[in-house]
Amino acid sequence: MYCSIQMEQPNHCQSYREAKTLIKHRWKEKFTNKTSGYKPHQDPLHLLSRAEQAIIFRLRTGHCCLKALLRRIGVAESATCDCGEGDQTPEHVLQACPLLDQLRIQTWPDQTDLRTKMWGALEDLERTSMFMASSRFRV
Question: What domain of life does the native source organism fall in (predicted)?
Fold first, then answer.
């Protein structure tokens, strides 16, 4: 269905500035909602050193020097990890890569989920950054 420029436009009783203010207010409510959304004041990322912050941020966004990203941007031929068991993504490296099993057990003696490793408390983020710094992968 095509829209015609000859169609009558609705007459709104509010100005552009008022509409803009209302939209901004709705977005602010959405992102400060107590039940969902990112809460920067609760994220311990800012308590880490600059180097640790960079590691965690790169893992969270997937913009690290792992083969999955390098393949996506055309730098690497393959996204497959050196272990051959999957693509080399942050999830694979932190959770499943057999080449890092021993280091993973030393870092996390108990089973730890990916969310805790990347979004957990300060101690969890410090462990994750230490794990990546100690691993053979450059982040």
Answer: Eukaryota
